[in-house]
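Researcher: We're teaching a course module on how sequence relates to structure. For the next exercise, students receive a sequence and then see the predicted structure as tokens, so they can try to spot secondary structure elements on their own. Here is the exercise chain.
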Amino acid sequence: MLPKTITLFPRIDVRKKEKTEVETTESPEETPEAKPEISMEDFSKIDLRAATITAAEIIPRAKKLLKLEIDIGGRRTVVAGIAGSYDPEDLIGNKWWWSRI
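Model: And here is the predicted structure for the students to work with:
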């Protein structure tokens, strides 16, 4: 004889779930507070530059990561999670925005 099974996921009563959804949609929605705009003085503190991608390669055993060598007045190596959208060969020579606060 087999032991009694344990229910990992109990059944959900659809009718009961529909009632709770109706109740939650009737509650008034609160609008999130907007972040205040920054002043021109704060914006001028941002160091925003355009870097040129000089080399790009796929990182082994990673699905979304690319290793990028950029030239921003000096060479830097950065990692970007854009491998799902871009081929490394297509990125070489393109401009990339670099910011430092």
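Model: If you want an answer key for the exercise: The first strand starts at residue 47 and ends at 58. Strands lie at 47-58, 66-71, 75-80, 95-100.
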